[in-house]
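Forwarding these from the shared drive since the link keeps breaking.
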Amino acid sequence: MTPRSLIAASALLAAVATAPAAWASNTYSGAMTEAEVLAAQKAWGEALVAIAREHEAGGHAKAKALANTVLDKAYGYNLGPVLFKPTLTTAPQTFRTTKEGALAYFVGGDPNYPNDKGFALQGWRSVEIKNAAVQIHGDVASTTGNVIMTDKNGKVTMVDKTWTFKKTDDGAIRIVAHHSSLPYAAK
């Protein structure tokens, strides 16, 4: 393992293993907290950066393996269809209600999704989340706002994002709805 791969693997560990409040908790309280929601969002951003770095250090196969792990930890595909509308998708594959569709969006390389180039492979270096609002209703929380991503060349991309999180019976926080789009630009 190269030093870069080691750093990328460490970043994944940080995004997945050190965010127990975001993706798993030792104590189930039933109700989700704002701190858990914010931690889940932060972990998502850290995981996006980790996938990009893993791709650069270890290639597509390693980035795909990491993205697969992130999807298992962050999203609720084990609960049923996830209401996922990624930023850069078009009909007939606009919505990604299956894990396979989400994985194709994040890392590309799936012949069933030929237009996917791998959103997570864009050299992301930082992710900032600016919520306009957070609603919490027991074990479900929704957020809406902007996600600002910066790539390795300093290019900034901002998307409008709405997430819904579900706290499962074991205390894990899972994304069950994820809508992302580029901000509207009037012509």
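-- next protein --
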Amino acid sequence: MTDSLPTGGLETDALQLPGWTHVYSGKVRDLYVPADEAITEKIGQECVLVVASDRISAYDHVLSSEIPDKGRVLTQLSLWWFDQLDVEHHVLASTVDGGVPAAVEGRAMICKKLDMFPVECIARGYLTGSGLAEYKASGTVCDIPLPEGLVDGSRLEEALFTPSAKAEVGEHDENITYDDVVAMVGDDIAARLSELTLKIYTRAEEIARERGIILADTKVEFGIDAATGVITLGDEVLTPDSSRFWDASTYAPGQSQPSYDKQYVRDWLTSAESGWDKSSDTPPPALPADVVERTRARYVEAYEKLTGRTFA
């Protein structure tokens, strides 16, 4: 989170939490800062409360329908991953005893105040999505040349750092080159962001594969810890909202792979049943109950397969 908190967020019905002031809402998360010095003194440093909602977005729209327990799944999975990674991260507390309000325990984290870099740090181990589209057009991903003959789902010889520039809520992130990152943050920081991103991906890919899941790609974000000056992992990490997870047992290059995310939502919105034109300015319709339930089940399945825990 930043010294100058983000602006231009969504208008939401964010909870009023005693001791905290709501300052921003993104597509999924609501941000709060301490309303008085007592909280800051208890935590021991400047902090921000990050609360994951059950909101879901698709095609740059936040839907009117919510996915029950999605905020808890994202938060609990992120917390689990933070424990697996040997990387400095932003979480200070995640329980009531640590200062999290009881009303949002399980889906909230008290985090270090970070000055975030304006870069979405993406690691790709497999070719798909926007990377595949660029490859078909030019044989590259973020201007990195790739071998001929790759198809949707091809595993890359080595994972790539393929950054994008952050966009405002409702806009598309834009793929950029490594040189663009250097121009934005300097040589040393660009090199460190690439190193940390690929380190996280490599470790997470190994862990996921042991559990029968392929981590195709992931997005992480970093900032400078305002208290220490250390580059620190922020936001969420390795969730179905920030990563592309595939079932290893059904993986087959040359076709679109079923993923542990909001694919049910995307598929329904683009179906004849929904009647919605994603190229229009019309908001998406509400989701049918069965799409909501299947999407919830997919998020929970990802959590349980990765962590080995039962989601309560």
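The chain has a mean pLDDT of 93. The first helix runs from residue 37 to 43.

- D.
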